[in-house]
Specification:
Helices cover 58% and strands 10% of the residues. It is mostly helical and 226 residues long. The protein has a three-stranded antiparallel β-sheet with strand order 1-2-3. The longest helix has 22 residues. It is flat, with a radius of gyration of 19 Å. It starts with a helix and ends with a helix.
């Protein structure tokens, strides 16, 4: 792994490691070595939840615990972490076993999301909590800025359903339109239909669930503006 390429990754994180071995371990999947990133991932997951929780707590003092919990869950689940990891081009830095490489593990959403958590854990071990907090802020700050407190952290499918029910409309239906890519890294395209309003929207994602959420968000955005 070229030092220059790791510097590019560090630039994306906004953090330079003092202990290069920690960065290497954070990028090592269990398929590659017994000295892998699983324990660091565990640590990173805890830190991520803590920091995002604190950011939401400070930003939305009027919201209750359940609302904050839903917001946090939507921000730190696999899909957004995968998207952030993909933006960092994290798959090119991961050390994977031959089998995982051949099966496209470097593009698999679960592996990329886990790898991002490992990096956060490694930053904590290398530079302490404040350093990890700064990295999380850099990576997720814009997403937190876009959170709508009026939705109380509800996901798009729930918001769409509640909007329709409040107007005594029927529930939306979801249809899988297509899948593309290899089995290990598929992209799903889904349609959301609201027949009574003759509305059809589409969404895509790394899982069918994520694609349904994207389609529901498109439908809710259109309807809530009317």
């Amino acid at each position: 792994m070229a030092a220059m390429s790791l510097k590019t990754l560090e630039t994306g994180l906004g953090y330079s490691f003092s202990q290069a071995g920690l960065l290497t371990q954070a990028l090592t999947h269990r398929s590659y070595s017994i000295d892998n990133n699983e324990r660091i991932e565990f640590l990173g997951d805890s830190i991520l939840n803590c920091v995002v929780g604190a950011m939401l707590y400070e930003r939305f003092p009027e919201l209750r615990e359940g609302q904050l919990s839903r917001m946090r869950a939507n921000l730190v689940n696999q899909q957004p972490l995968y998207e952030i990891a993909r933006d960092l081009d994290l798959g090119t830095y991961l050390r994977l076993g031959e089998g995982e490489l051949k099966s496209g593990g470097a593009e698999r959403p679960s592996i990329l999301a886990d790898g991002l958590e490992s990096l956060i854990g490694a930053v904590y071990l290398d530079g302490g909590f404040e350093a990890a907090q700064a990295v999380v802020g850099k990576l997720l700050g814009s997403r937190i800025d876009q959170v709508d407190p009026g939705t109380h952290g509800k996901d798009a499918k729930t918001l769409l359903q509640e909007w329709l029910q409040s107007r005594r409309h029927g529930l939306p239906s979801y249809e899988l339109l297509a899948t593309s890519g290899q089995a290990h890294a598929q992209t799903f395209r889904v349609a959301c239909r609201v027949d009574v309003l003759k509305l059809v929207t589409e969404g895509s994602g790394a899982s069918r669930k994520a694609a349904e959420q994207a389609a529901a968000q498109a439908a809710y955005s259109k309807l809530s503006m009317t």
